[in-house]
Design a protein that fits this description.
Blueprint (H helix, E strand, L loop, with lengths): L2 E6 L2 E7 L3 H6 L9 E5 L4 E3 L7 E6 L5 E8 L4 E3 L8 E6 L13 E4 L1
Parallel strand pairs: 2-3
Antiparallel strand pairs: 1-2, 1-9, 3-8, 4-7, 5-6, 5-8
Length: 112
């Protein structure tokens, strides 16, 4: 998996890109504790079935502008982002990671 870092305020969060079918299929299923985010490009829906903990999510467009975010998404939920699949990406993060975000804020990514 290719790694990036997401800068959120004064936090630098490791982001792993789920690009292969199996990586996208499994995602964070079964993980109880993790300290990174998982990026799904060309994705406008997620589920939290079989998750062991709550997660935070950020959905953004091709310009890295936030179009949706939600903190503490519980287990066994489906979230559908009302945006074109090809124009949407989603990051799944540990619960309580996102704070002080606004729709339209631009995300900043850095490579190692």
């Amino acid at each position: 998996m290719k790694e990036y870092y997401l800068l959120l305020g004064n936090k630098k969060i490791k982001i792993k890109k789920a690009s292969k079918f199996l990586q996208r299929l499994i995602g964070l299923i079964g993980k109880k504790e993790f300290n990174y985010g998982l990026l799904f490009n060309n994705c406008n829906s997620i589920h939290t079935f079989f998750m062991r903990t709550e997660i935070d999510i950020i959905a953004f467009d091709n310009d890295n502008k936030i179009i949706y975010f939600k903190s503490k998404v519980p287990k066994n939920k489906i979230l559908k982002i009302k945006n074109n699949l090809k124009d949407t990406s989603i990051i799944e993060l540990p619960s309580n990671t996102i704070k002080n975000l606004n729709i339209g804020d631009k995300l900043t990514f850095k490579s190692k």
